[in-house]
Amino acid sequence: MRAVVQRVARASVTSRGAAAEPYEVVGEIGPGLCALVGVTHDDTAASATKLASKLAGLRVFGDDDGVMNRSVVDVAGAVLVVSQFTLYGDTTRGRRPSWAAAAPPDVAEPLIDAVVAELATLGVSVATGRFRTDMRVDLVNDGPVTVVVEV
What per-residue confidence (pLDDT) applies to 34? Predict the structure, then answer.
């Protein structure tokens, strides 16, 4: 699993099922992390648990001295998890990315759900996007702080 994680002042995701439908807010958080999560073919439930643990413990929030020493758990923040198969896009050949390394939706969706469930178990408030829909993510990157997490 791979995640692009941004520390945010706020973030939301809107979704629509079809082009003719309006977008609706499906997930929204205040201060915390926005995690765009991609799943590949060899990921497992153990990968999901490990990613959730890393997200919950990622020390990218400032302590009293302004040093990034606190996690989203420490600051009582939230995590917005958005499935993002394009994180496994391969652009080594040509200009059109290949999505072959991305897991198919029937494999990816339960693993994204497992990340969300594990974050909740770890005491993190979690919001999500909506799988298999057209989504728009709106966020205010705080810092800016952006990291790539891979498990």
Answer: 98
